[in-house]
């Protein structure tokens, strides 16, 4: 199994001890409803974990919840709400959204506020080892002391001066230094050896992962936008505190999600929450849409593209239902009259080869499309035996477990139109064709096609 490593910018063979994988993915800052960009990342890693487990790996998937942060505090002030109550309210909304999207592979969600002792200990370790210093406003990490800072993003320290996303603080020795502990006496705060305050953004992740995984582990994931400064800071903190390198064997990052070619932003009016998405499309359709693009590639969202994904998924699901319905018939041939077993084996080979190649879900789905196309013809010609249909059903259910959406429609997903109504429509169209009203006849055919109903003139 080959996995792309952001650190080396190359695909590498996945190597772990005793088939056990410790995986950490950065979780949300819970001050608002989660959006479709969050969903893209967490669906991608959900499928990655599902596949790793399918291949026999034992995976412990840890995710943090940032439940104390400037954004949370500011939003709570706007709402006249307690910051921790607001955070835990939106944490529940996030977990509910993940359940709706069938993201169920996370073993544990670790709140920052419930790991304050571990955070304070790690900050103290960094001070003791000369990598951090105390000031009247907080404790800061001394970036110059860690010679490899920026090695994940490939940024040079000399180039960081104008790129650091922190407010200027005259108490810092260098503008590049980042906060480990922010001193404040406004709620929420915690007692520490340096006074009342709360943790900085980066320190919670390494304190949490050290608690559960130790100073080194196998895979760290997140969105591409987190590489700098967040993941670079994590590396500096943990490797400086432990003296061990590397912090992580494999770094994995999901690409950006844009809406109609533009970065998603409330100011642009194209900010879409998961809840808003699910008012228009089913969770399965969004999972299918996400997996139709490689997890490392940028992905462009639009309702038109989602509608195409919906129709594509319906075709696959209807084929699956056709298989199930055919399996229940009594007039099946005793032996296959086609090479469908060979095609099934080819599909399995192509699907798993794609997944073993850095979890290439679009190629895996393409192999599924190719197989279902061939399968439909054989089903219509009544060429498949009951034993082979059983193997096909088992394979579809196996793939379902990896992708996290159904490949067998529970009921007809093509249309709610009854057969009688369809007959009326096709009769009217035939009359239009007889009167040579080709434009309107073609429009009816095209509109039926948009409902996933294929009409052919023979």
In short:
The chain contains 14 helices and 14 strands. The chain has helices spanning 36-54, 70-79, 83-100, 116-128, 203-213, 227-242, 274-277, 283-291, 303-327, 340-356, 361-380, 386-403, 419-434, 438-450, and strands spanning 2-5, 10-13, 20-25, 58-65, 108-111, 132-134, 138-141, 178-183, 197-199, 217-223, 248-254, 257-259, 262-263, 299-301.
How does this model look, in words?
With 458 residues, the protein is α/β, with parallel strands linked by helices. The chain has helices at 36-54, 70-79, 83-100, 116-128, 203-213, 227-242, 274-277, 283-291, 303-327, 340-356, 361-380, 386-403, 419-434, 438-450; strands spanning 2-5, 10-13, 20-25, 58-65, 108-111, 132-134, 138-141, 178-183, 197-199, 217-223, 248-254, 257-259, 262-263, 299-301. The strands form four sheets. A five-stranded parallel β-sheet has the order 5-4-3-10-11, sandwiched between helices. Helix 5 packs across helix 6 and helix 8 (283-291) packs across helix 9 (303-327).
Distance between the termini: 48 Å
- Mean model confidence by pLDDT: 93
Structural class label:
alpha/beta
Number of helices: 14
Biggest sheet details: 5 strands, parallel
Unreliable stretches: none
Helix-strand pattern, N to C?
Answer: EEEHEHHEHEEEEHEHEEEHHEHHHHHH
In terms of DSSP E residues, the strand content is 5-15%
